[in-house]
UniProtKB/TrEMBL annotation:
Top-level taxon of the source organism: Bacteria
Keyword line: Kinase, Phosphoprotein, Transferase
UniProt name for this protein: Histidine kinase
PANTHER family: RESPONSE REGULATORY DOMAIN-CONTAINING PROTEIN (PTHR44591:SF3), STRESS RESPONSE REGULATOR PROTEIN 1 (PTHR44591)
Record flagged with keyword Kinase: yes
UniProt modified residues of type 4-aspartylphosphate: 55
UniProt xrefs under InterPro entries: Bact_response_regulator, CheY-like_superfamily, Sig_transdc_resp-reg_receiver
CDD domains listed in its UniProt record: REC_hyHK_CKI1_RcsC-like
Gene3D superfamilies: 3.40.50.2300
Top-level taxonomy: Bacteria, Pseudomonadati, Bacteroidota, Cytophagia, Cytophagales
Domain Response regulatory: 6-124
A GO molecular-function annotation: kinase activity
Family annotation (Pfam families): Response_reg (PF00072)
Swiss-Prot/TrEMBL GO biological process terms: phosphorelay signal transduction system
């Protein structure tokens, strides 16, 4: 069987975090979590991550700042991790804003779980 891919879920809402985690675990993904921007950076530096679901409104460092920091990494494996923004405030941003910081895609909240699985697969199937 193919090695399972690791997804980092950056989300400060326990409800959304747990639901997202369960959905992706059912798809055989290995899940790491971060409840704030500081934890996101620690997880990225300490683990091989295949994609990140990044809530834009997390504490400590928001999702946009975390993305900029990840993209600035000297390690190409880290700098090139696909990042999928997850936000309830997509209207505050344009796809150009996302692209400018290096976000690959975005999912609006409330999450459509079929779209979530499809989007994660798009970035993790090699």
């Amino acid at each position: 069987m193919a090695e399972s891919k690791t997804i980092l879920i950056a989300e400060d809402s326990s409800v959304i975090l747990n639901l997202t985690k369960k959905i992706l675990e059912l798809q055989n993904y290995k899940i790491l979590t971060a409840k704030n921007g500081g934890e996101v950076i620690k997880q990225v530096e300490g683990n091989k991550i295949d994609a990140i679901l990044m809530d834009l409104n997390i504490p400590v460092k928001n999702g946009m700042d975390c993305t900029k920091e990840i993209r600035a990494s000297k390690d190409p494996e880290i700098a090139n991790i696909p990042i999928i923004a997850v936000t309830g405030n997509a209207n505050n941003y344009s796809m150009e804003d996302f692209k400018a910081v290096g976000i690959n895609d975005y999912l609006p909240k409330p999450l459509d779980f079929d779209m979530l699985v499809e989007t994660v697969k798009k970035y993790t199937v090699k």
